Amino acid sequence: MISFITSVSLIFLVLWTIWSATQEAVKTGKRLHQIPCANCQYFSGDYHLKCALHPKAALTEEAINCLDYCSPNRYI
After folding, report:
1. What CA–CA distance (Å, rounded) separates 37 from 25?
2. Cα–Cα distance between 15 and 71 in angstroms, integer?
3. Which of 25, 45, 57, 59 has its CA 20 to 30 A from that of 7?
4. What CA–CA distance (Å, rounded) separates 72 from 76?
């Protein structure tokens, strides 16, 4: 009986860990999809200088609320 309870508890713990990891991954993914750098006119795509205005913040969570974000189609 004790082995049954232990095995059920272990299975529950594994499933709970998988569920928690999945929820955390979804939360992180949603946050990272808010980074606007790839659609900014100042984003070069070159790994040497990703952004002309904020090279250290480009493609990081710091860039989510970038005040200098400018859509490439803004002046068309």
Report:
1. 21
2. 43
3. 25
4. 9
